[in-house]
Amino acid sequence: NVxxxxxxxxMITTVLEGRVSVGSAVLTRDQQASLNLSNNxxxxxxxxxxxxxxxxxxxxxxxxxxxxxxxxxxxxxYNVDFEYTGSDKSLKLSGEVNRxxxxxxxxxxxxxxxxxxxxxxxxxxxxxxxxx
Length: 132
Prior knowledge:
Number of strands: 11
């Protein structure tokens, strides 16, 4: 699994099975390489590869993920800008959400974590601010 978006500071490669060469490293099952695009430093770690492919199974799946990472994935999926403006910048979320829920239902799920939201619209552009 490869995650590479132009707005992300890292390119991430996760091995589910087999072996993959990434730079000078050879990754095997449940290993992940993160390439920092600003300084070209490669970091290899052991991960739960099932979290990396949850999108393929129609799910958002998070295990101690920073709230900003969760919202980034929501932004990409729902094509709406989400921004966290809450006071607790260290907030991490864990859970699983089916990707077939609509954005309103995803926002309701965030409320279980004590998060609230404000929707703003400027013409056809929508932005959702998440606060706690």
